[in-house]
Queue: 2 jobs
Job 1
Amino acid sequence: MNDMTQPAIRKKSVHFTLNGSALNIETRADRRVIDLLREDLGLTGSKEGCGTGECGACTILVNGEAKLACLMLAVQLDGTRVETVEGLAQTPDGPLLQQAFVEEGAVQCGFCIPGMEMAATALLRDNDNPSRDAIREGLSGNLCRCTGYVKIVDAVERAARDIRCCREEQ
Amino acid sequence: MRAVLTPGSLDEVFDLLERHPDAMPVAGGTDLLVRLRSQAGQDDRPLIPLADVKELHGISKDGTTLAIGAVTSFSRIIADPLIAEHAPLLAKAARTIGGPAIRNMATIGGNIRTASPAGDSLTPLYLLEAMIEIASQRGKRLLPIGEFIIGPGQTALCGGEIITRILLQPGGCFPCHCFEKTGRRRSMAIAVTSFAGMARLSGEGVIEEARFAWGSVAPTVLRIPALEKELAGSRLDDGTIRHAAQIVRESVTPISDIRATADYRRSIAGNLLARFLEGLRG
């Protein structure tokens, strides 16, 4: 337990795994995770859209669960396993998901896509054969201001199919 | 810069709150961190994240009491078999909160402490007559949710106290229940008006017992005990339903804001009850 009398209280050492690599960083205790990722670590894939938890553009996975990096404090990452869009291509199913977004033409301006892909990753790990309704529910916290939702849902549906096929071949 | 104090146990939370009376406990942070950011610079009170306090997590049943740890996330509540069996209405409301990432973060205790008239888990908790367990270094006390929440954003919490558990006695048998939320869109939207209803009917289509609660139509969640009493023993004919909806429209005290006008909310509040009662007729 820390106390205000210790100067370390405002600076914290945070230890976590980021896209498979162990990290140990000193950070301001009240640093938001989105700022830690984008500004301190240079990982600008996660976007800050609204900063109030309404758009999902900053969606990351913490211990496998989708969370919003704009509403988390850096200290809350201590001891966790964090995945961001930058690490997706190195995961078993990430390349198929990303290729499906390309094939279906699901990307317009692209700002929402990192969040969409992270939310889709959480969904597909939980359910490898989701209905279109389940996909819409899984992505319901993510806004696309280009309103390209149909093709994004198509892409996730295709990714689910491709991932299942790939597993059967193996 | 704001200090963040990180307790690992409930005793440490109480100890920190005694030594830093201005510190703010954070559960999921989905409301609090947004609010603090909007007041950036004016407020540097320390934060006490509660997520690592194991005693505040989880759902258990002890005898007839269902206990939900204050920082249990809505995702856990939705997935929990005890909740599905004993408080399905709460799971139904929890499914409408935010989107998946918000439900992974937001907690039931946080929703209660935020005390928004639009809090999605609140209407079911009022119907289930939830007791809020509050604790501090000085000990524990229990308050019914209707006494715990005093007004918008205001609760009966005193200095050094936090919500530790939510206790339910899922005794009454209410086979029919519903939760409805009207808003600008289905996900992520703050409710314009919400409604929760529970009822038990006799074989002849007569209400034996019913409870109703509305969100976003008054400073706190509203129940109308006189209406619940009046409807017990009533047959669900058109006249009864029309009359009940009219009483609701006269009882609510909504405000107009950016989401809807008071008139709209008043009218929706009556309609949501009418729809629930019509659904009971089959």
Note: The first strand of chain A starts at residue 11 and ends at 18.
Job 2
Amino acid sequence: MKDETLRKSNETDAALTASESEMQDISDLKDIRLAVEHCSVRVDNGMDDTKEILTDANLAVKPGDFITVLGGNGAGKSTLFNVIAGGIRPTTGRVLMNGEDVTSTSQETRAKYIARVFQDPKMGTAPRMTVAENLLLATRRGQPRRFKMREMAANHERFYELCKGIGNGLEEHLDTPAGNLSGGQRQALSLIMATITKPDLLLLDEHTAALDPKTSKQLMAITASTINEQHLTCLMITHRLDDALKYGNRLIVLQKGQIVRDLNAEEKKKLTMSDLLEFFEDGF
Amino acid sequence: MIISSIGQGMLWSMLGLGIFMTYRILGFPDMTTEGSFPLGGAVCVAAITMGVNPFLATLLGVLTGMCAGLVTGLLYTKGKIPVVLAGILVMSALNSVMLFVMKSPNLSLLNLPKIQDVFLPLNLPENYDTVFIGLLAVTIVIGLMSLFFNTEFGQAYIATGDNESMAKSLGIHTERMTNVGLMLSNGLIALSGALISQHDGYADVSKGVGTIVIGLSSIIIGEVLFGELSFFQRMLATVVGSIIYQLLILLVIRLGFDTTYLKFFSAVVLSLCMLIPQFKRALHLTTGFEKYFKKDDTVMSSGKANA
């Protein structure tokens, strides 16, 4: 059915030539960046009964996808992210990264492919290390840490340029401990750290939620342009419905631990704010 | 006497630097200290009595200390035993290990070679050999630590203590880092124990009691005196703190305090030092030293980043 709509959209919409090639990739099953197959997560709640916080989740992410993830509190969004990133091992099902089964690998191992930005600005940076030191750590994402000098001087200029591109004055604070930055700067730093190595998959976990509306908007714009420029594959949880509409080429909705909607670019385009609100209302 | 205290302060400062690696960087107090400190001494002295070269004997002490640290680390990271309890378990077990190594609760080095004997040909005045050994050891240790913290590995180690979940998300093996940290830390502590034993001329099973208090005191006295510092300066501050602590002890003894109750005094000193930030907050006081170091600090940190 999906293929049908795709073909239709290809025929009808001549303006979509740019995304056409991307859509043909979809039929090529080998070219899947991330696959979540029948993943369920059950937890014991201390008593005898168990609770299923993720139920038979299935998701195939193609390279270049920018997927927004919607869902109310407790819908299982963060659980899904933890399953992907390796923080939680699914009770059943498997996770494939570039076709390789990574279900039983640790979070540290998966860091090679997956970068993540958290909601809390404190989570993504080391507070007592300087901005430059944080960035330097991130350049070695997923690689072994050797007894080799860290080469700070060689990278300083590059870091300056990178931070300057963000446009919130971060470049002036390269030698400031990350803990002294504002929330917006810290989150921007987390974003640079997550994207500096061009990860195979970028997970954004409500990364603008803790910021004020203006800063949040700025960071979201920076995020979108970074993703575009580097052609990153990205999953983004958001509670801001306008962001969910505006960004991304695909949208999934979670409810009570299940992926209940999976809309492609075409379907997503037709969405309105009230449709989105309905997704939330269904859950409550 | 003052020279002797300064020398001893330097020897004890390795203990402070060892504890610094866990308490200040990884963020937990490591109780193994109370076992690895006398263990370093016990192994070193036992080896010397068996005819081993003092340098080699000291090295052996360091190695056994590292093993003790590794055991604590494995109990904590792999066994999921709370780190303080893991340390207490190892500390307790080490008591028997020391008795096994020395075959008695204490062992003397009377008429046997010691590491400070290398300075004999120089005909130094009394106690200066301790100062020189101390200086040499402190220079080497701080030099190596500075190098270590500037490697990729060292940076990952700092990150582990600073924000473990971030470190993990960057692919840093935080458990491995914790284990290595505990090994290095306890190696340093054992080095301190080995040098102190050679200075004192004997090793004793009960020497470890209260050492964690002494080590923490050095760190905290340094921090209270100098306030915000760069990484390198903080290590130096720990050495200064350790010397000041020994001078305080000397002062207390000179004042006629009964040395039997010295541990009580140590605990009071550490408690007071740890309370100072609270007093400062309540009374808006400064210790007066910060302003002299503030300017210096900004220079240092920019220098560090360029390094």
Note: Residues 174-200 of chain B form the longest helix (27 residues).
